Amino acid sequence: MQLNLIEKFIIIALNAKKGKFVIDSLSLHYGIAGAILLELSEMNKIEIEKKRLILIDDKFTNDEVINASLKIIKKSTKKRTAKYWVNKIGNSASRYKKQILKDLSEKNVLNIHQKSYFFGLFNFYSYPLIDRKYKDEIVDHLLEIVLDNKKTDLESLLLLSLLNSSKLSRTLFANKKDYRVANKRIKELTKDIVISDAVQKTLKEIQTAVLVATTSAFLAATSSST
Length: 226
Description:
It is globular and about 55 Å long. Helices cover about 60% and strands about 10% of the residues. The N and C termini lie far apart (about 45 Å). By secondary structure, it is mainly α. The mean pLDDT is about 85. Helix 2 (about 25-40) runs antiparallel to helix 10 (about 195-225). It contains 10 helices and 4 strands.
């Protein structure tokens, strides 16, 4: 089954059995924003020029999330930074998340469960995977790249950089030693893999923007709880 980078990010972010997300909602939403931008980059629809995100192909696809993002970027009267778009898309990511989960449900990757309490006043959702092999295959491939030096590809590199900046890599590398090795290896891969200057620049800007957004959100949440 063909899954895009955005869908793979969501699957990794889910607990396969419980169907709950393993990172906080703010980190998840900014991660989704980063995944959308990286997917647009992989599709050669955007690039970074003088620190500004440039739309180079605004043709719609058969993906509703991609099309909605293209519309937002196209509407902007100014050329904005990756940081701006991570925040802009991240702040609306709950509706993107809903569509991504719906698409994965239609592909029979996961189920959407709803529980209502107090006569329907409160609704809680979970998204258990129908078969955890979908997550296992993605995760095993990434672990082989990072820990066993298996040859990587552009999408896996983009996904690894996103997981690292959105705090999800900590769920993949629970062992502290493996986590340190992973951090170092991901940085090396970003430098060593043969990709164009435009993609390299875009990857760096989006990765930094997601890291700043998630860190800021974490610090804000921590300060408000003290």
